[in-house]
Each structure stands twice: as C-alpha cells, then as structure tokens.
Amino acid sequence: MAQALGEDLVLPSELQDDSSSLGSDSELSGPSPYRQADRYGFIGGNSAELGPGQPPADLIRQREMKWVEMTSHWEKTMSRRYKKVKMQCRKGIPSALRARCWPLLCGAQMCQKNNPGTYQELAVAPGDPQWMETIGRDLHRQFPLHEMFVSPQGHGQRGLLQVLKAYTLYRPEQGYCQAQGPVAAVLLMHLPPEEAFWCLVQICEVYLPGYYGPHMEAVQLDAEVFMALLRRLLPRVYKHLQQVGVGPLLYLPEWFLCLFTRSLPFPTVLRIWDAFLSEGAKVLFRVGLTLMRLALGTVEQRTACPGLLETLGALRAIPTSQLQEEAFMSQVHSVALSERDLQREIRIQLAHLPKSSPGPAPLPQARLPGAQAIFESQQLAGVRGSTKPEIPRIVVQPPEEPRPPRRKPQTRGKTFHGLLTRSRGPPIEGPSRSHRGSASFLDTRF
User: What segments bear the compositional bias annotation Low complexity (predicted)?
Assistant: First the structure.
C-alpha cells in the first residue's frame, strides 16, 4: 500500500503553479537570470508582495516582539500561558521567527539537547543502499522551483539527502516514505539540518505515528475517521462522494502525509504548519473539511462533477483566491471539530476496523494532541530521568496519647506542716481538723 500511495503523491506537471508549493517530476538545469525569487525562495513566484488581508508591518513587528518574549521564557510560557501561544500560532508565526518557534513547539529542541552528537553520527554513517537509491531518485522532485533545490549539487538537495538518510538509520524498521521528502524540504527551508532532522522525528513519531511506516496503518484509520466526520458535518458532500465512488484514500494521503505541501499555496501551508505544530492532527482534519466545502459545498459544484475524475479534479482545482492564507485559515479555525470529538470518533472507528487486516493495529494513543501535551510529556520524562537527589518526604507522626491533666493539690484548710509531711513520707498522727485552737496548731503555724 505504501508504494501505491507513494506513486500517487506525484502530481502531473500541468497542475503545478509557481506560486504554490506543488512538486514536479521535471528537472531544472538552473534558473533563468531574468527570473527572481519571491520572499519564500520560489523562482518566478508571485509572493514577493504581501497579499490582500495581510497584517501591516507594525502589527507584524508587535507579534515578533511577543514571540521573542514568549520564547525567552518558554517553560514558564507553556506552563502558564499556553492559550496565548495557541492564539498567536493561529494568527501566524512571523516568518523571521519560525526557525526559533517550530523546534520549541514540537519538542525538537529538547530531543536535540537530550541526544547530543546523534545526528552527526548518523550523517557520517553509510546509509542502506536500497533507501539511498530511492531517496536519490526523489530529491529532484522536492520543490524544483525553489532556489535551495534547483541544483543537484546545491546545499538544499545535499542537506535533504543527509536528513532523510539519517532518519532511515535512526528508525531502520520504518525506513523511508516518499511523503517525508516534501516535509523535510519545508523544514530545511527554515532550519539547519540537525534541527530539521529532530523536527522530522517529532512529526513522524509524536504528531503522526503510524503514518510513514511500511503499512501506514494510521492513514487508513484516519481515512475512516475523516469520512465519519464528513458524514456528520457535510452530509451532502459525503453522499456525493459515495455516489461517484470517491474513497478517502484517493485524496487524503496526499493531503495528510505531505501536510498539504503539494496541495496549497506556500504561504497557506506555513500557516497550516503553525497551527498544526501547536494543536496537533486536529488541524489536518479541519483543513480537509474546509477544502471539501470549498470544492463541493454547493449544488452547482456537485452537479458539475458527475463522475470520479471530475470530482477529484474539483478537489485539485480550487481557485487560488479562496486559498489565501488569512481568509482560508479563518474558515479552518471555525470548523466545529474539537479534540474531544476527534478522539471519540477515533475510538468508534478503531472498534469497527476488521481484526484480520494485515499489518500492525493502529495505536492512536501514541499520538499527542499538540505542543502542550508534548511539553508536559517531556517535562515528566525529565523528572523521571533526573539524577538530582530526591526531595525528602515529610512524615507526620501520629499524635501521642493524651495524658490526664495534672491535678492541683487541694490545700484549702490544710496546714503547711501537713503538706510537707505528705510529700516526705507517711502522714503523722495529729489532732483532728476540729481543734484549730490547740497548741500544736499554734506551734506549727508560728
């Protein structure tokens, strides 16, 4: 299944657009001297200027200052002010700070700190010849219109080869999946190779476990979950897909496995990644539902797609004007899908999966729902693996048995001599209390 899905991830050249992040199978000998790169590095792209709805420069500068302040005290921010982090991620991380924020959000910085020298060892180690050949064939397909990946001898393709090879050595049981290529390429556009590698590890093992393995068991589970959500939230679109025979595996792997890098304009992809690294896989489902509504939400749109090919074409031909980052992400965040709803649907679909399906069973509990859960998990792991002495426990002793109160001796009507004799020894015989006027009483008193 992995090989079949991998072949479907390559889009034909006529569907490419310089302004988007779509890939290609064609090789480029080099950029034309008269073609310039846009602000994201795409040659001939039209993203050089800010599009409609973009925030002004002053607002961008204010957001940059907020992110600098939050990342300077990251543990305190995540412990006490995560809601602010989530809202700032939804507004979009400033381009100048994504290299600083992405590793913190996904936990890659902590992984790199806990594994010093690991990437350097993997980078210099020889790779598996089988995987190296497959990776080498896919290098030129990853963003061929980006200035980093134009030349086969450039630092972009060489860094991509090292990162993907390092992952096959780090997780030899999983190996290489073709969909990891565009994901690693986007990371390399913003990060050094070592940080990009650890971000890739976190995406494959924490955000989307079971996606990039040989069986892709989690992709099949999420495909069923997506259809169930589609049936509940967009019932007419779901009915149309059922009528024309469009199953979720015909479009969903390209969306989810590649994190929409081959399907949407690049500025929108970056905004999706900001929210995805903050809130987890829930964002992918929201984006998919939004695309379904934009492509097949009206009666006219569904009428124009009487068959399977027309429906798939409509999913890939959404007008670019409807995919602009600000307006599109506003619709994404308005989708009525919470983390609790997603987890409930996952449990339902997991119970309906056939027990005899080949490959391992999906483990949705291994997926962490975003940056806050990852931060708490790493903090807990750090406490368990700490070498610091344990804090002594406070032991509360039970209260002692209450003693009877000490009685004050009764001295009223008694002589001082009588008290002394009682304390020193047995009482001596003397006159009775009625003889207070006797000589012995007077002698004793004076």
Answer: 18-33
67-101 burial, b at 16+ Cβ within 10 Å, e below that, comes to beebeeebeebbeeebeebbebbbbbbbeebbbbb
Cα separations (Å) of 258 from 14, 191, 192, 412, 431?
19, 18, 20, 99, 113
335 vs 327: CA distance, rounded Å:
13
Which pLDDT does position 353 carry in this prediction? 81
Q: Please state, in angstroms and rounded to a whole number, the distance separating the CA atoms of residues 347 and 188.
A: 35
Global confidence as pTM: 0.78
Question: Residue 226 above 80 pLDDT?
Answer: yes
- Of 140, 138, 193, 139, which is closest to residue 167 (Cα–Cα)? 193
pLDDT digits (tens, 9 = 90+) for 265-289: 999 999 999 999 999 999 999 999 9
| Chain segment 339-352, per-residue pLDDT in tens | 999 999 999 998 88
Q: How many residues does the structure list for the chain?
A: 446
What local confidence, expressed as pLDDT, does residue 352 receive?
A: 85
How far, CA to CA in Å, does 287 sit from each of 24, 106, 241, 252, 282?
Answer: 23, 20, 18, 11, 9
Nearest to 288 by CA among 244, 348, 337, 350: 337
Helix orientation angle between 180-190 and 155-170, rounded to the nearest 10 degrees = 120
Residue type, 215: H
What domains sit in the chain, N to C, each tagged with a CATH number?
A: 59-91 (no CATH), 94-207 (1.10.8.270), 217-353+366-381 (1.10.472.80)
Cβ–Cβ < 8 Å for 264, 323: yes
Amino acid occupying residue 186: V
pLDDT band at 360 (very low <50, low <70, confident <90, very high): confident
Question: Which structure tokens are listed for 129?
Answer: 């010849």
